[in-house]
Amino acid sequence: MSEELREKEARLFQSLKEALEKSKGLGKSCLA
Amino acid sequence: MKGTPYDFFVQWHLTERCNLRCRHCYQSGAVSEMSCEEICGAIDNVRSAFQSWVTEYKMEMSPSFHFTGGEPFLRKDLFAILDYVRKCGFSTSLMSNGTLIDGGMAQRIREAGVSDVQISLDGLEATHEGLRGKGSFKRTLEGIRNLVAQGVEANINLTVSRLNMNQTGELVRLAEELGVGAIAFSRLVPTGRGKGLSSEALTREEVAHFYDELQAFKDNSKVVVISRDPLSAIADMDGEIPQTEMPIGGCAAGISGITITADGTIMPCRRMDLPVGNIKETSFRELWVESPVLGSLRRREDYHGGCESCRYWAVCRGCRAIALAHARANGHEDYLGPDPQCPYHCLS
Hints:
The structure holds two protein chains of two kinds.
Chain A: H1 3-23
Chain B: E1 9-13, H1 36-57, E2 64-68, H2 78-87, E3 91-96, H3 103-111, E4 116-120, H4 125-132, H5 136-149, E5 154-160, H6 168-178, E6 182-187, H7 204-219, E7 224-227, H8 232-236, E8 257-260, E9 265-267, E10 277-278, H9 284-290, H10 292-297, H11 320-329
Parallel strand pairs in B: 1-2, 1-8, 2-3, 3-4, 4-5, 5-6, 6-7
Antiparallel strand pairs in B: 8-9, 9-10
Helix pairs in contact in B: 1-2, 3-5
């Protein structure tokens, strides 16, 4: 994995963690 | 300290072969199938991504694998695959039409440690068989009864259209009689063979009416009544609406789920026929970050036609598969436009 991609991944999961904390979970999923 | 769980699911279509030919199916034809060995390798590929997310970003993961088809029981190696996933430590579920689940099969499912089986039921007998074929209703109900008798959690999933939208009360009562864990409702997506039923898709007004009616059943039924529709997040919303940069609910495409088809094609959602790679050729960890399609599904500014300015964006975003199917019917390749059935489009 390139350094650039790893940084992008780190930003993605940071945003996701912040959103999860704020919402206390993703709610229900929509399996097809 | 434990964080908030990241409930990631993999919907895995092991085959497109099926013993039924449902008129509303989102699949349209057979493709080649990965071997059991290739599937186990692909599971390792996905597992490796999960392990990285846990170790490097301290994500509290609770991933699950949902195997389906076509009809998954047509794969002779189904239980070997389930066994492999279970040994990897993941939860497994099955999604089936139920018609091949006799008593012996139900016992094997229980012994395989499957957490639940989602069975498709699309209406009362005449409606169900009009969509799925003669004799299918009784066989599906027998499959459900066999699962319940073995103590396996069975859940019903129903694809909502004008053909069955007025049968909710009777279907909830049937679900109660059968002893299932839940009955869930999803909107018809006019893609694959389902394109032929476009005229049976609900209007905005019908969607609003349907969710109003469903709410009463959620409050007054002995069985759990669920809507698997992103729009239902709005209907169910109570209190403050979370405003976050990343989506936190609603449509799972690009956020908390992925679909892998029988030949290894990766899609954001099975009903959103938009390949983003192949699990046999791609690192899933890298794909999850670098796919332009998955990336755009996470960015509010990439949406248009209403969702981008809606206060419910983070918890809904409509059904991206329906948005894409609608755009394609009008000659556009666009999965970020409006959900044409959204009754809340004015709530910006």
